Amino acid sequence: MATGNLAPLGYLSDRETKVDLLNNEAIAKTIVRLINETVDSAVTIGVHGDWGAGKSSVLEMVEAAFPEKGEVLCLKFSGWQFQGFEDAKIALIEGVVNGLIDKRSLTTMAADEVKRILKSVDWLKVAKKGGGLALTAFTGIPMVGFDDLVGSVIDSVKNTWTDKDAREAAIKQIEELKKEKGEETTSKSVPTEIKEFREAYKDLIKKAGIKRLVVLIDDLDRCLPQTAIETLEAIRLFVLWDRTAFIVGADEGMIEIAVRDHFKNLPEIDVSSNPSRDSGQNYTRSYLEKLLQVPFRIPALGETETGIYVTLLLLGRALGEQSPEFEKLLALGRAALSKPWEGKGIDHDAIKTAVGDRFAEIVDALNLADRVSPVLAAGTKGNPRQIKRFLNALALRLAIAHERGFDNAIEQPHLAKVMLAEMFLHQTVFDHIATAAANSEDGICPEIALIEKVAASGSTEPAPANDEAGVLEPANPVIDEWKTRPDVMRWAAVKPNLGAVSLKPYLFVIKDRKNYLGSAAPLPPKLAALLEKLLGGDMAAKSVLADVKDITLPEAVTLFDALRKKMREVSNFDLRPVAMGGIAVLVEAHSSLQGRYVDILEALPPDRVGLWVASGHAFVTEAASKARIETLYSATIRMRAARQSR
Fold first, then answer.
1. CB neighbours of residue 612 within 10 Å
2. Rounded distance between C-alpha atoms, residue 593 and residue 447, angstroms
3. Exposed, middle or buried, 209 (CB in 10 Å: 0-12/13-18/19+)?
4. Nearest to residue 550, comparing CAs of 589, 584, 591?
5. pLDDT tens, 269-323?
6. Are 157 and 130 in contact (CB under 8 A)?
7. By C-alpha distance, which of 120, 133, 138, 136 is closest to 234?
8. Were both Cys, which of 127, 250, 273, 515 would link to 221 (CB 3.0–4.6 Å)?
C-alpha cells in the first residue's frame, strides 16, 4: 500500500521520559530502596550505560519516586550546567547549597546557618581566584592561616590578571570578605575552614527536616574532561557526609577518558608481565570506582527486548501514550520483558484484544515493528536512542516524499528495508546495491533477489539453479561473499522482498546522505589508472594483468562494472569492442567473474554481433560458463546464416 493516504507517523522524542518502555523501572526502584535503607550514611551511585541507553530516564524515575515535600529532597543537575563556570567544583557546591536553601525555605528558618555557609562558599570562590588554591583548600593540606591565604590570593590576582577593572573588583571582593569574617577568624587554618563548612552544611540538613538529600547529576559524560573531573572532585567533598546521596548518570568509558586526559602522566604498564601493578587503564577505572561506590549498568537490549520496545514505541505513537488502550499494551509489554529469555514478544492476539476497535489504527505500525526489529537489534546493538533515530528518520523521509508529491511511488515497508541496509549493512554492501540499482534501466539490483532466495531457504548453500536450456548457472562472487555476512543474511530475510522492486525512487528519497543517482563518483587513483590501461586496447590491457591480479575482488567488480558501462555505449558489435579486451584481462585475473563475463556476451544483440564472439575465451574454464559460450556460439552462427540467406 502506498503511503500517500497514511496518517502522519509523528515524532519520537529523544528526551528522557517517565513512561518506562524498557523495564528500567526495576533499576530505579532498586536505587530508591538503597537510598532509603542507607539513610544514615553517605552513598554515591553510578548509573552507567552507553550513549542513549536510558540513563536519564532512570534518573527521572528516581526523582519521581520522592514527593517534592517529603522527607527525601532531590536536587537535579546536568553536567552541562557547570560547563561555562570558572570552577565546576564550586559551581556544584554552590548549586547544592542554594538548592537546599530554596527547596526548604531555609532563609528564614535557619538564617544564621544560611549566612554562615554562604560565606564559606564565597571563601571558596576567593580561594579559586588564587589560581589552583581552591583544590588545595578541598584537600586541607596547606596548614596556613586565613590571612596568609588571602594575601597569596591578592598577590596572585595582582600579578596574573591583565584586565584592570576585573582585577580591582576581585581584590575589593576579597578584602570585603576578609572584613566580614572578622578578626577572630583570620587566624584559622584552611582545614578549620573546611571543617566549619561541613558543620554548617550538616546544620542546614537538620534545619531542613529531611532524612536524606539526593543529588542527581546527569550528562556528565557529555562534558569536557575538565568539567567532568571537577564535578567528581566536588562529589568527593560530600562523600563522607551523612544523609547525602549522589547519583551520577554517565558512560563510565567516557569518564575514564576524562580521567586519563586530566592525569596525563599515567603509566602504560604491561600487567601481563607484572600482574601486581596497575596499568594506566586500571587506574582510571579504580578512580571512578572509588568515587562511585555502587554501580548500576543498563544492559543493551537483546533481539526480543528490541522487538517489544519497537512495538511499544510505534503503537504508543499510533494510539497516544496516555490512551487507555496503550496502558493495556504497556502492561503486556512489561509482562513480556519480565521473561526476555523465553524469546517471546507481545502476542498479537493479546494486542488485538487490548486495543479493541482501534486495532485497524495500529496494523501498519505492528507490521513495521515485526519487520525491522531483528535488524535494528543487531544494527543498533540494542541502543534505544539509535532505534528512535532510525524510526524518526523513516517518518521524516516519508513526510518529505509526501510534501514533494511523489509519496505514491514510495511504499513504507520497502523504504524501511532500504534504510535498514543503508544504516546497518557494511558500506561496501550497500554501495553495491545502490550503484547497481542506479545504473540499471529498471532500477533493480539482481543480487538482492538471489540473496533473498538464499535467506528464505534458511541455508547458505542453496540448491543450484538451471536456466531455461538446462545449463547450470555459474556461481556469483558477490553472493558468495554476502552469504558469509550475518548482517546481510539477517537483512535479506526481512519482508517484503526487494529483488523485483525498482530502488530508484528510494535512492532518491535517501539522497540526503549520498546521491547514488547523480554522476558516478570518481574511482580511486589506483583503479582509475588501471581502467585507463584496460581501455587502451589488447596489448595495453594485457600489460597490467599482474597488477589486476593484486587488487581485491570488490575492486575488480568495480572495474568490471565500469567496463560494462563502456560496453553499453557501443552501438556496432561487428567488431570486438575495445572494452572487451579489458574485461577479458579482469576475468583472467579473477576467475570468479566468469559468469558475469558470459552475461555480457549473452546480452549482445545476436543479429548485430560479429564472429569475434565465438573465439578468444580460453580463460573461461568453468564448465557451466563454457557450456553457455558454446550455446551462444551456436545461436550466433544460426543467426548469421539466416541473415546471409535473405
1. 14
2. 14
3. exposed
4. 589
5. 444 444 444 455 567 777 777 788 888 888 888 888 888 989 998 898 889 888 9
6. yes
7. 138
8. 250
